[in-house]
Here is the input.
Amino acid sequence: MAYQFDFGAILPHWKLLLDGVVLTTELAAIGAVAGVGLGILGAWARTARTPVISQLVGVYVELIRNTPFLVQLFFIFFGLPALGIKLSEFQAAALAMVVNLGAYSTEIVRAGIQAIPAGQIEAAQSLAMNRVQIFRYIIIRPALKKIWPALSSQVVIVMLGSSVCSQIAAEELTFAANYIQGMNFRAFEVYFVTTGLYLVMSILLRQILKVFGNFLFERRNHA
Amino acid sequence: MSLVELHAIHKSFGALQVLKGIDLKIDEGQVIALIGKSGSGKSTLLRTINGLETIDDGTIMVAGKKVGDHDTDLLQLRLNVGMVFQQFNLFPHYTALENVMLSPQVVKKQSKGEARKIAEEMLAKVGLSDKMMHYPDQLSGGQQQRVAIARALAMKPRVLLCDEVTSALDPELVNEVLAVVRQLAEEGMTLVMVTHEMRFAREVCDSLVFMHQGRIHESGNPEHVFASPKTPELASFVGGLAG
Here is the structure.
């Protein structure tokens, strides 16, 4: 006998899905803002003249980029309590996302910084700007502009990666989907709808990042 | 006392000795051209004067103060020494006006109004009052270079270094930039320029410094230097240009 589809079976659980969407959004927002912020700091540190700092950041980046996100998450949630650092599911999930995106965006932002012509920096130096001023006024905005599409993609990847956080019972969207499926056994319907929700969230996030990028790099053109 | 005094400047890039003991004094209001073949060390010498190149040995005094290699020393030095580059190096994300206003605001902590007033004045001086709101990529090379000059001048430097400021320009745009430099010279600005524009150097400069293989080979009054070069190297350099 063919499978009888029953999407109506999900309806009673709409509140759970909505809560999941909200939590995923929160995780993504924290991850994106703090992760990209961390990435900018990391990229700045990578260009530091003190080799120790640059190398430490290098170790962090390689450590994160060459290990699975799930293991990083487990380490933070199950491992850190051994050091007396006990985090809630949400805190652990958020921290894992920030740390993960921070490493990837360090490399992406660094690529943008390296693409700034040396002459720009020499011009700023010859205008008596110090290193912090040069980074803030001369380097960072053109650098981010160059790598904004790559950075946006990484933010979306990390947002989708938050589904893994269901494994430590952070009650995000995938956790909600698993939970509903466990109650009504409507796996196809639940994951079909969940897939759709992730798709919509990705598209929305991309649009938000695009609009934000346009705002950030817009020419207030009076010419 | 001279405004800039270089004494026994040595500089190597790896095994290559680029500057082999340079002594040079630049007085307030003096206009000096550094000439010589490519690889003679003239650009490197210019870049040591504002610390874009570190020196291996020797001393640099600017306005009576010895220049060290600490960051604070360099910042102090660069307040006195402006620079204009071959490739303009305008900041692409700022308008012409913002390019000129930026450093007075963030380095000298001038108010926006103050910085804007000076910037407008400087842009007017280089003939670009009507292009203030343009971005660098909306300007011709000659216009970009004039903005770069205005940007350097807005910091009110005591000496301006010009590193082949017309070499990246289309021939028809060279004159508009040279006209600005000439005007600065006439106003009494202290200028040190690396240039291949020999006729211009001859007309505008007080002193010509011919560099050869990392040393100052010959220097003096331009008319004199051009008319009767003392060394065969300068003679052949000048002759090569004429021919």
User: Anything to note?
Assistant: DSSP finds eight helices and no strands in chain A. Residues 12-217 of chain A form a domain with the MetI-like fold fold (CATH 1.10.3720.10). Residues 64 and 100 of chain A are 6 Å apart (CA to CA). The radius of gyration of chain A is 21 Å.
